[in-house]
Amino acid sequence: MFEKMEQSSGNVIGYKVAGTIHKGDYDELMPEVEGLIEQEGSINLLLDMTGFKWEKVSAWGADMNFGKSLHKKIAKMAIVGDKRWQKWLAKIADPFYAAEAQYFPSEESAAAWEWLWE
Fold it and tell me: Do 102 and 115 form a contact (C-beta atoms < 8 A)?
């Protein structure tokens, strides 16, 4: 599930990514993100993946569509986590999901927000 974080404001939006992600989770996420993009022009996005478990195979298409359709509208993406593979995910996100992506260890989540607000 994607849970909007209270630190979100203006064109900076953050989500806690928790548990197992299903296709329906993207059905809820997309309109909110698209609405913010419509308002702001482009956004900076934080994904806190410390509570993430897995993404169902049935959600992979929706995940790819999210990146494909919004890539040019996401200026910065911060991935916050505590697993080594999440650091690699930030490198993959750079060309496919955002103009610029960066990984932050979970204990540096405040630095992730600061980077997005710059």
Answer: yes
